[in-house]
Design goal:
The complex is a heterodimer of chains A (about 260) and B (about 270). The radius of gyration of chain A is 20 Å and the shape is globular. Chain A is an alpha/beta fold. Chain A folds into 2 domains: about 180 residues, Rossmann fold (3-Layer(aba) Sandwich); about 70 residues, no CATH class. Helix content of chain A is about 35%, strand content about 25%. Helices cover about 80% and strands about 0% of the residues of chain B. Chain B has 10 helices and no strands. Chain B has about 270 residues and is mainly α. Chain B has 2 domains: about 30 residues; about 190 residues, MetI-like (MetI-like fold), CATH 1.10.3720. The chains are: A alpha/beta (about 260), B mainly alpha (about 270). Chains A and B meet through β6 and α2 of A and α7 and α8 of B.
């Protein structure tokens, strides 16, 4: 259960501004979804959250403490691809987080510690429906199974925040809805803070308790890189019924009034 | 009409067709050899298989009068020892420097252009320097193999490490892994099959440098022998020796391939 504060964050690459004036909080236990078209800085923001890149101005805090300058164990991640390690079996993939944390030097556990790590991993893999393929390699799994493994692997590290980077974007619809249900169940269970980036609006509305969007408020036709994207929409979905959710999704879609578009006209 | 690119064939026929060129060369040799021997029974250029066999068995099964060694096996042993040392040290160097260059920006900044420059120096051009610096013994031969093979292996491995999906390295860091843990649990295990592949491609160059070194300064070894008997135009020894060298190289390649498949089932794993 952790709160993320984004305080006046800017990201610039040379003279091009990608993100500007980002100021918002993600509450503890929230399932926050960031949507938006490609090129609106979604991925850049996630990279900042993960410390994959330095922030140009401002700061990001988790529970009041600035995030470290490199990726760390408090922020777990599931990428769209390359989230699991191809050279490890399903079980060893899931055990890796415990191997690394408990065996500081070589990252490999033995004896009783290994047995307890194996037990925890097996239990979690059972929960995500991979109990029957413990000794398979990732290449032998379907895309949906690989993503379930990636989720299990991230959760076993007990991160303060779970980040999802288009994690379900490459899956076919039935697999996707299955994994959505699983994700919601795990989120409620563990009471964790989840931040998800997706281009799929329906996905955002069916999973999130809050949907936000980045867009450009200011635009200079002569210098496209002069201004960056910032938070333009923010909808709270907590406690809404299915019907209300459908309505907010419909009104979101209708309202193309992303301010940038208005300005451009 | 079916396009020739779409004409598939059964595995049995494919195997027979694969043997065809070998058979053709053998037959061509036998015919040419017969013609020459018919004109001059003492011809040394294309000896008959019988002559080659008797020369080879002389070397393989009769102890040498001067040293008491079985020359073929003694030569094979010395050559393989040099090869194993040269290639083994190259692999160790490749693991250390390849991973460092591929993974650590500071190491890449220091080492990349240097390794690239070293790999452009023809190792054979360095052979005189090696003989002067390390003497005519084993050391200079092994160093020549290392100079020929290690830069390639290092660059190949560094490139493979760089090509690893960055996501995997980030993921490992979100698990709290240190650089050393990332190397031993993620990078090295994923790179070992690549390294064995690189090693397979280095078998040819390694033999080349070994034979060159043995030809110039040695007292035993397969390369030494064929260059020694060249003085007597002893094709009946040279040809079987070359075939034996090719067989050894083939077995090394096969061994590495089998080893790789055994040790790293995940590289071939699929549904």
């Amino acid at each position: 259960m952790s709160q993320i504060s984004i305080k006046n964050v800017w990201k610039e690459y040379g003279s091009a501004t990608v993100l500007e004036r980002l100021n918002f909080e993600i509450q503890s236990g929230e399932f926050c979804v960031l949507v938006g078209p490609s090129g609106c800085g979604k991925t850049t923001f996630l990279r900042l959250l993960l410390s994959m890149e330095p922030i140009t101005r401002g700061e990001i805090l988790i529970d009041g403490v600035p995030i470290t300058a490199e990726p760390s164990r408090d922020r777990g991640i599931v990428f769209q691809r390359y989230s699991v390690f191809p050279h490890l079996t399903v079980l060893r993939n899931a055990m890796l987080g415990m191997d690394i944390a408990q065996s500081k030097f070589g990252g490999l556990l033995f004896g009783r510690k290994r047995a307890s790590a194996r037990e925890a991993a097996t239990e979690m893999l059972g929960r995500v429906g991979l109990g029957h393929v413990l000794n398979h390699y990732p290449a032998q799994l379907s895309g949906g199974m690989q993503q379930r493994l990636a989720i299990a692997q991230a959760l076993l590290c007990k991160p303060k925040i779970l980040l999802l980077d288009e994690a379900f974007g490459a899956l076919d619809p039935p697999t996707k809805s299955q994994i959505h249900a699983l994700m919601l169940e795990l989120w409620k269970d563990q009471g964790m803070t989840v931040f998800m980036v997706t281009h799929d609006l329906e996905e955002g509305f069916s999973l999130g308790t809050r949907v936000i969007e980045f867009g450009k408020v200011r635009r200079d036709p002569q210098a496209p890189g002069a201004f960056g994207a910032t938070l333009v929409r923010d909808v709270d979905l907590t406690g809404k019924t299915q019907k209300q959710l459908r309505e907010s999704l419909a009104s979101w879609k209708q309202d193309t009034g992303s301010p940038s578009l208005v300005n451009a006209l | 009409m079916t396009r020739i690119i779409n004409k598939k064939l059964s595995p049995g026929i494919a195997r027979i067709l694969g043997l065809l060129p070998f058979g053709a060369v053998l037959i061509l040799y036998v015919i040419s050899s017969d013609i020459r021997l018919h004109e001059n029974p003492n011809d040394k250029l294309l000896p008959s298989f019988g002559a080659m066999w008797s020369a080879l068995s002389q070397l393989a099964f009769t102890p040498d009068v001067r040293t008491g060694n079985y020359l073929l096996w003694a030569d094979t042993l010395s050559s393989l020892k040099r090869l194993a040392l040269g290639m083994g040290i190259s692999v160790a160097l490749a693991i250390v420097f390849g991973i460092a260059l591929g993974l650590i920006p500071y190491a890449a900044a220091i080492g990349n252009s240097f390794v690239a420059a070293v790999s452009l120096v023809p190792p054979l051009a360095l052979l005189p320097i090696l003989f002067i610096a390390f003497g005519l013994d084993e050391l200079s031969k092994i160093v020549l193999i290392i100079l020929g093979v290690a830069p390639y292996l290092i660059r190949e491995l560094a490139l493979r490490v760089e090509q690893m999906p960055y996501e995997l390295l980030v993921k490992a860091q979100t698990m709290g892994a240190s650089t050393f843990q990332i190397i031993v649990r993620i990078v090295l295990p994923q790179m070992l099959p690549r390294l064995l592949d690189g090693l397979r491609f280095s078998i040819g160059p390694a033999w080349l440098f070994l034979i060159a070194a043995e030809a110039i300064a040695s007292t035993d070894g397969l390369g030494y022998r064929i260059f020694l008997v060249r003085r007597y135009l002893a094709m009946d020894i040279i040809i079987p020796y070359v075939a034996w060298i090719a067989t050894l190289a083939f077995l090394m390649d096969l061994g590495l391939r089998v080893l790789s498949a055994r040790l790293f089932p995940w590289t071939k794993a699929s549904v």
